[in-house]
Amino acid sequence: MNLKHLAHLLALAETGSFSRAAEQLHLTQSALSRSIQALEDELGGRLLDRIGKRNELTPLGQTVVTRARRIVLEAADLQRSVELLQQGDLGSIRVGLGSGPGALLMTPLLQHMARHHPRVRVSISRGSTELQLGQLRARQLDALVIDVRRIAPAPDLTIAALAELRGGFVCRAGHPLAGVAPVPFQRLLAYPLVSTPLSDEVARLLVDHYGAVADPAQMVTLQCEEVASLIDTVAETDAIFLGIVAAARPGIEAGTLTEIRVHPPLRGGARFAYVTLAGRTEAPVMAILRRFVDERLRD
After folding, report:
1. Same-domain pairing of 202 and 256
2. Residues 6 or more apart from 274 whose CB is under 8 A from it?
3. What is the rounded end-to-end Cα distance, in angstroms, of the chain?
4. How many domains does one find in the chain?
5. Domain encompassing residue 30
6. Ramachandran region, residue 69 (left: φ > 0; alpha: ψ -120 to 50; beta: rest)
């Protein structure tokens, strides 16, 4: 079976139009029609019904399209793997980093690759978990490093647990609560709290531990995916950071930030995972990323 014929059918199914599909594929409409006809002849049945100016998949066409998507993607994976072996170098790393892993890994990873693997192409994607999962499933990313609480198990995903990093509250060194121990949790609420979006599981843990006032939907006043921006805000204002303490390590070591000792102390933290597509062969270069993540993603 000709892979090009399957790819042509997929383009036609996505656009619903011979003219748009032909333009997308850089073919003439007659060439596309011949390709679809050849596939129909080979399979022994009609794949498309012409209804007015529209083209709709027949039941056979729907079945073929479902299978063809997997076949074409697997063929693309095969071609990419062969290219990696033929390049004479280690290829490329395309990784999506969640907010916590991004704060801890992004700059160190770029520096590590520039120093030790200068011929490897590295692309780092940031964004919401939903966006990155879509990119992984579309083969635009090879792996994700994200908070496991923000991802639902799925049969097409392989989720490998990594380290669990301790959570806490961090403020600037000159903050009114700096050096005060222990600080009742209620006193934190007098100041802006900043955080990345938190999972429902973490929200329940906070409410169970501190009461209804700890619901992130009400408690957190400043929220974004970029931990570095949150930490910078905390360093310049009286805002308090809620998240993994390791993300604030450079500021704590420099003496510009400090961890608030809260009573009762915060329990738990962020559990990270390395996520790939199930059944997809991983390029050899990805072993570099796995080793780096295992070594650096820790308290």
Report:
1. yes
2. 143, 144, 145, 159, 160, 162, 290, 293
3. 53
4. 3
5. 3-86
6. alpha
Q: How far is CA 151 from CA 9, 93, 154, 231, in A?
A: 33, 22, 9, 24
Whether residue 233 sits in one domain with residue 146: no
Q: Do 111 and 203 sit in the same domain of this protein? A: no
pLDDT in tens, 166-183: 999 999 999 999 988 899
Q: Residue 31's domain is classified under what CATH number?
A: 1.10.10.10
State the CATH number of the domain containing residue 111: 3.40.190.10
pLDDT score at 127: 86
Both 232 and 255 in one domain: the answer is: yes
What pLDDT is stored for residue 169 in this prediction? 96
| Signed CA dihedral, 70, 72, 74, 80: sign only | negative
Question: Please, which pLDDT band fits residue 110 given cuts at 50, 70 and 90?
Answer: very high
Q: What is the dihedral of CA 30, 32, 35, 39, to 10 degrees?
A: -120
What number is the average pLDDT over the span 47-69?
84
The CA distances from residue 64 to 22, 43, 142, 163, 261, in Å, are 19, 9, 27, 42, 60
Distance (Å, whole) CA 293 – CA 287? 10
